[in-house]
Design a protein that fits this description.
Helix content: 10-25%
CATH topology of the largest domain: TIM Barrel
Protein name: P-type domain-containing protein
Organism: Apteryx owenii (Little spotted kiwi)
Number of domains: 3
GO cellular component, one term: membrane
Structural class: alpha+beta
GO molecular function, one term: alpha-1,4-glucosidase activity
Bound molecules: 2-acetamido-2-deoxy-beta-D-glucopyranose
Strand content: 15-25%
Number of strands: 36
CATH superfamily of the largest domain: Glycosidases
Main location: membrane
CATH architecture of the largest domain: Alpha-Beta Barrel
Distance between the termini: 50 Å
CATH class of the largest domain: Alpha Beta
Number of helices: 14
Length: 724
């Protein structure tokens, strides 16, 4: 029960500042791998280092700090009186004399002699029991398991296309550690300030944050899957996505006109490509104004959306957070009403709205979603939009929040909030870059503290507004996320590039967002920036067919017949497995499981070389599992009426198990409802068993022998086509 423990009362006092003079020859007391950086900001020098009471000593180990804390840190805390245990599972240990360290269930150990706890700088170092550390986000990580060789990751939400080591759109100060006995645990530092974490080979983690408190949660597993179940129990289980939102989705920045959009949709239908959802990026709007549509280039959009919906498709619209203040008074209701209701993020004076540079003409205000009045205003706007454009879901972009300048007009004042003594390892080492000034005011507090919560605070209100507008299960896709965002929304990995490397890294990103409790996750298939190539885009279509959220945002113009054929084939595999994917989402929603799983290399025992011609993606099934499937169709509206089948992949013992969750796919609220009869008319018409060791002479189903002509056997399995 360790993870329920909340408090430990420790009477500690700051260690008296010791102004020691160090031997100018550098001390070897601290082994290089145990060094804790004492000058994490750029520009370290021996002089500055020693002025801090730290040791300066060069090393040729890459990225290892040259300025580091001595064994006997001049900072930190020591015990004053007795530590009081509030729960028996937490303990404090005395190291030497009055040195104190905190330990939670032997998974999280921190020496308080290293703790720094000041107004704008909090630092703590914890040991980890192994170097198998996963998580922390949002970044482009080059491997799923982290390198512990002095890597530092900053966390502060930012409009930043994925680049290694850069802080990206969301913030997730959560990691999982797999110990040498393969038990796993997870740790969350619930803190929304700009922060960074350094991973050292000791192995240890050093957390630095510039505000808030050190609020750690430890989740004890013991399996990795248990850790995520416990983590999402604490932060909120992922929402249950609508069945249609597991279908393939199409989007593109800049169709430019409804004619191009229609041609694209027609082409998808002509090639019979399974496809459920069409998205509109900001070019559907009139001059990129939220809650409008372009009545010239997109004339007839409302009717067209209705038509697609009649054909069983669904429609998602993008909305940006910023609202233009440049329109004539009385002509742009979203601004007029918001202004009247006082819903914007304010300047440091707390009364005048912060005006940033954004679409369309450079003067925009930013809704403060932490303010309940803003939630009312936003809900009202979303409801009114629904009367014009009959959307099924909302895609919320730019909500880091992004601003095209450094801070709002006329720039940020010089003060401690805007210029803290330490800026974590984030891009540009500037808190206001591409966003608002830290001293801006939101309802929940200073932007300094709430910046990384912006996208998170917009997600739940958008979810509830969409539910209210559609009367159905909501679809919200958010670019910026924080701890707990998965409860109300999904995410895509951002504006990445059309390169092979990015396709590879998308797999890591998708696994990581499953750790963060946001299993409705995908990357833009074929990339977003740059032109894609035929082969890359095709391979990405094949891979993306297995993303939990499968959307192409860069539909290639080379939609030649072969491309369409291969895309159709791979998407038909996705559609046939949707009952399985849907069941995984149900498990995630109810029990917090992940949707995607990493197969440990040890399971594979040996490397295998398999054929992968351009027309095929190798697909492997784990022995021991049963996958429900359904014959594919061009939309899920149609495929949901098709017969089911089962793929039974036996394990070494000749056994397998599985489950199927089925409901109407889009109603809100209780998922296990008595009286749902929608599955009654559906039959199982194909059961495929893989991995049989012996040739069967007869097959029995529910105790009744199946006629010999109703099943077939291939040397690599048995296929029983059972007629009802
Ligand atoms: C922002 O200013 C408006 C007045 O312009 C006020 O109504 C609102 O409460 C303020 N909000 C915050 C969070 O300061
Ligand atoms: C992408 O392709 C278009 C059309 O072929 C071309 O005009 C453009 O320059 C290309 N862009 C890049 C970045 O290669
Ligand atoms: C590019 C990419 O997709 N991966 C990332 C994405 O952004 C930058 C820009 O190219 C790359 O440097 C980086 O490797």
């Amino acid at each position: 029960f360790c993870y329920y423990s909340r408090e430990l009362v420790v009477q500690a006092r700051p260690a008296a500042r010791k102004r020691k003079r160090f031997n100018p020859q550098c001390s070897r007391d601290v082994p290089v791998k145990s060094r804790i950086d004492c000058h994490p900001q750029p520009g370290a020098s021996q002089e500055k280092c020693e002025a801090r009471g730290c040791i300066w000593c060069s090393t040729n180990m890459p990225n290892a700090p040259w300025c580091f804390f001595p064994e006997d840190s001049p900072y930190g805390y020591s015990l004053n009186g007795n530590a009081e245990k509030t729960l028996k599972t937490m303990n404090t240990k005395h190291k030497q004399n009055n040195h104190l360290s905190l330990s939670i269930c032997h998974r999280w150990d921190a020496s308080l002699s290293d703790l720094i706890f000041s107004n704008q700088y909090l630092q703590i170092t914890t040991t980890v029991p192994s170097t198998s550390v996963y998580g922390f986000g949002e970044h482009e990580h080059l491997s799923f398991k982290h390198s512990m060789n002095f890597a530092t990751y900053g966390m502060f939400s930012r409009d930043q296309s994925p680049t290694p080591f850069a802080n990206l759109y969301g913030v997730h100060p959560f990691y999982m550690c797999v110990e040498t006995d393969s038990n796993a645990h997870g740790v969350l530092l619930l803190n929304s300030n700009a922060q960074d974490v350094s991973l050292s080979p000791n192995p240890s983690l050093t957390f630095r944050t510039i505000g808030g408190v050190l609020d750690f949660y430890v989740f004890l597993g013991p399996t990795p899957e248990n850790v995520i179940q416990q983590y999402t129990e604490a932060i909120g289980r992922p929402h249950m996505p609508a069945y249609w939102s597991l279908g393939f989705q199409l989007s593109r920045w800049g169709y430019g006109s409804i004619d191009v959009l229609k041609k694209t949709v027609d082409r998808m239908h002509y090639y019979d490509i399974p496809y459920d959802v069409q998205h509109s990026d900001i070019d559907y709007m009139e001059r990129r104004l939220d809650f409008t549509y372009d009545k010239v280039n997109y004339a007839g959009l409302p009717e067209y959306m209705q038509q697609l919906k009649k054909e069983g498709m669904h429609y998602v619209l993008i909305l940006d957070p910023f609202i233009s203040k440049d329109e004539e008074p009385g002509t742009y209701r979203p601004y007029d009403l918001g202004e009247e209701m006082g819903v914007w993020v304010n300047n440091s004076d707390g009364v005048t709205p912060a005006v940033g540079k954004a679409w369309p003409d450079g003067h925009s205000v930013f809704p403060d979603y932490t303010n309940p009045r803003t939630v009312d205003w936003w809900t009202q706007m979303c409801l009114e939009l629904k009367d014009v454009l009959d959307y099924d879901g909302i895609w919320i972009d730019m909500n880091e929040p992004s601003n095209f300048d450094r801070g709002q007009y006329p720039g940020c004042a010089v003060n401690d909030v805007n210029n803290p003594p330490y800026i974590p390892s984030i891009s540009d080492r500037a808190l206001a870059q591409k966003t608002l000034c830290p001293d801006s005011k939101t309802y929940l507090g200073e932007h300094y503290n709430t910046h990384s919560l912006f996208g998170w605070s917009q997600t739940a209100p958008t979810f509830h507004a969409t539910q209210k507008a559609t009367g159905k299960r909501a679809f919200v896709l958010s670019r910026s996320t924080f701890v707990g965002s998965g409860k109300h929304g999904g995410h895509w990995l951002g504006d990445n590039f059309s390169q092979w490397k990015d396709m590879h890294l998308s797999i890591i990103g998708i696994l990581e967002f499953n750790l963060f409790g946001i299993p409705y996750i995908g990357a833009d298939i074929c990339g977003f920036n740059y032109n894609t190539t035929y082969e890359l885009c095709l391979r990405w279509m094949q891979l993306g067919s297995f993303y939990p959220f499968s959307r192409n945002h860069n539909a290639e113009k080379n939609s030649v017949t072969e491309f369409a054929k291969i895309s159709r084939e791979t998407l038909r595999i996705r559609y046939s497995l949707l009952p399985y994917l849907y069941t995984l989402f149900f498990e995630s929603h109810v029990h917090g499981n992940t949707v995607g799983n990493k197969v440990p290399a040890s399971w594979l025992k040996n490397y295998a070389t398999v054929d992968a011609p351009l027309s095929k993606i190798p697909l492997f099934l784990r022995g021991g599992y049963i996958l429900p499937k359904q014959a594919p169709a061009t939309t899920t509206t149609k495929s949901r009426l098709n017969p089911f089948g089962l793929i039974i992949a036996l394990d070494d013992q000749g056994e397998a198990s599985g489950s199927l969750f089925w409901d109407d796919g889009d109603s809100i609220g209780k998922f296990v409802k008595n009286g749902y009869r929608g599955a009654d008319s559906l039959k199982y018409n194909t059961i495929t068993i893989l991995g049989l060791r012996l040739r069967p002479h007869a097959v029995a189903l529910n105790g009744r022998t199946v006629r010999g002509d109703a099943f077939s056997y291939q040397t690599n399995g048995v296929r029983a086509a059972l007629r009802h």
